[in-house]
Amino acid sequence: MPTFFLIWFGQMVSTIGSYMTVFALTIWIWQLTDSATALTLVWFFSQLPRVFVTPIAGIIVDRINRKYLMLLGDLVAGICTFSIALLAFWDSLEVWHLYVAVGFYSVFGQLQTLAYSTSIALMVPKENYTRAESMVAAVNYGSAIISPALAGRLYPVIGLQGIIAIDLITFTIALTTLFLAKIPQPDFTEVEKSETVVQQLTFGLRYITQRPSLVAMVIAFSLFAMASDVGKALYSPMILARSGGNAEVLGNVTAAAGIGGVLGGILLSIWGGFPRRINGMLLGFMGAGLFKTLMGVGQNAFAWMGAHFFASLNIPLFYSSSNSIWYAKVPPKLQGRVLGADQTIGLIIASGATLIAGPLADNVFEPAMQIDGPLSFMFGWLFGSESGSGIALLYALSAMWMFLVGLGGYGFRTLREVEVRLPDHDQSLK
């Protein structure tokens, strides 16, 4: 696994820099607009282009050297970040510039993400899939510990441009590690001449629909992701609204989530996960949903920090368990198209959930939870009636749905027995 460790280190450093920029820009947008919709639209525009590019990206990943695609993704990310820095330096940065930048980057970022995820099965032995995925998850949550703390302290001193300068340095480190890494490549197969463009684009979806157990996996994760993405979009607005726009509180809660995610990743990498990985996925759904529900109910920093810590403790479990099932069941040379199809479905859901989350919070739940509002009579005793109460109610409802998806998943045999019904790709060749 030396190659995996080298790339993992470079991506960890780069992610810390990227999260610093995201944190600084989140505060900048909130101070400028005081709007949940404005924040959720950044997430929406980062997801929408991925919906259209992912089916094509799946074909490209199964045809072109994946190392080159990862390098291209990091390079474009650096260019987009540098452009934002220039606009900020000229005092010309506006919110819509960020929509354009994240949209442009997302096209190439999806290529990089898909190339990285499909390379794991080639760099890591099958018995270590869950461990490797837990380390990937720990990168994001480790960054969530370090980045808000660094950005919160450095932002008043060096400003947005200084934060972005640090981000650009971390991009350079990530590019260097990728240049040095020797990433194994699958046996790229030529597309059959009889295949039309439509057949090539729909290969992954057809592969999944021919296997009921994979269909069950997609449905379960989609139902979970629908609620999870609403919560992701509302997380920062909820904390900022209920803390009076306090960036330090947001940073502390985010850091607590990061500690939980890192600890969950470390424990999972030592443990290795459940022998039946579907249990890790469904129980992870339930654990994350339960504690995110408590986070929505909480009304102070300590309650948010505790709930988010325990919620994030479960996230490496369900992501790593789910991904390791896909790696084991789908041949590496097909993973670009098959995982691309799965991710396209998830991205469509994420885009829709994000698009409705902000307006629902701003225009429906927030007014309804104010004093004398129609929902405050039922839920005001639990969520309060001050600013952010409506966002918190919507957040809690989405989290309860996450829990129910995990619990309900055990009621479907096709999903529950996915690892028994569908052989591993290396076994199917024997």
UniProtKB/TrEMBL annotation:
SUPFAM superfamilies: MFS general substrate transporter (SSF103473). It comes from the Bacteria. Keywords: Cell membrane, Membrane, Transmembrane, Transmembrane helix, Transport. One of its GO terms (cellular component) is plasma membrane. It is found in: Cell membrane. The keyword rRNA-binding does not apply. The chain crosses the membrane at residues 7-30, 42-61, 68-90, 96-122, 134-152, 158-181, 214-235, 250-271, 278-295, 301-319, 339-361, 391-412. It is a multi-pass membrane protein. One of its GO terms (molecular function) is transmembrane transporter activity. PANTHER family: MACROLIDE-EFFLUX PROTEIN (PTHR43266), MAJOR FACILITATOR SUPERFAMILY (MFS) PROFILE DOMAIN-CONTAINING PROTEIN (PTHR43266:SF2). This is Major facilitator superfamily (MFS) profile domain-containing protein. It comes from Crocosphaera watsonii WH 8501. The lineage of its organism: Bacteria, Bacillati, Cyanobacteriota, Cyanophyceae, Oscillatoriophycideae.
